[in-house]
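Hello forum,

I keep getting stuck at the same step: I have a sequence, I want structure tokens, and every attempt I make locally crashes halfway through. Rather than fight my setup again tonight, could one of you with a working pipeline run this one for me? It's a single chain of 129 residues.
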Amino acid sequence: MGSKEVEEEDDEGPPPGWQSIPPPSSQPPPAPPSEMAQMVCGSCRRLLKYPRGARHIECSCCHTVNFVLEAQEVGQVKCGSCEMLLIYPYGPSSVKCSSCHFVTEIGEHNRRPPWSVQQARAGLINFEA
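Reply #2:
Ran it on my machine without issues. Output:
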């Protein structure tokens, strides 16, 4: 008779510690992210994504604080030794390569137009033959 008594006991509710999941709240969707930009970390060379307009970005990998320069603020030149593309803030008369340590003089013969100008030119090229 003892087993019948256990089966006939009333259900006392959920077990201790059990909690019901509340229904999802009706919050508005998150605001769209602001325009994002990318750069390569100057130390570990990882690609970093950051909100456009930021001036300093800390790398999440090596924690180096990178100074952000916009396309119109940088110049480009090929290294005079290894021909690696060097990107530098406008103004210096020479740039030292981070790869081979060669110092390249900045002159008209090896100066490239700013990236923004190169992109504008690429948009004007007609590929139809």
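The radius of gyration is 30 Å. If your local run keeps crashing, start a new thread with the error log.
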